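Appendix B. Raw example, untouched.
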Amino acid sequence: MANSIKRNRILKLDRSDFKFILIWLIILFLTWQFMHGADRFLTLTKEALGKYFEFKWILIAHITAGGGSLILGLIQFWTKLRELNPKVHRIIGLLYLMAILLSSLCAVILAFTTAKEVNWAYAFSLQIWVSVWISSTSIAYYAATKRKFRLHQQWMTRSYIVTLAFIISGSALKIPFIQGLGSSADISPSLFWVGWSVPLYVYQIILSCKGKTN
């Protein structure tokens, strides 16, 4: 009887659910675009991969798992799913964690190898970025294991903000005005920093304002 009630409640979507689904579909589309831009690497030829040729499987694993984390991460913030089916919420959370673990470990390898071939600033910005990605996700997981759910939600938000930075910086690089500022090697480091640091700063401001009003 209880299971039947839960199923009925899940099927009754309200306006906030449709807004969430719309946002998720937008993220899904942007993730597809992000990954579609790397289709040339799937040929696995030296001409297509360039400096990534020796690390081709590392690169493919990084992109694939990164795309998975973008799609899975947002589902964690669906309040109705979290409240009505905590088990599914935990499973998706673990899949998100594993996707980030794989993608970030591959990113570490790339940041300390192929990224250095671009320039020092490019490599360093990626190294810091992936460090923030790993640490924020790890803290979110640790908070969940300690049943500190409010803290877990805050750090999950930070983790996903850093995850979204892949789309933010990648999309910004396609803007003609941004491209006119210089070569990809010159402007990418700044976009990497802006992609995650500014959204995190804004999120901290939001948290501070809520703390004052509560």
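End of appendix B.
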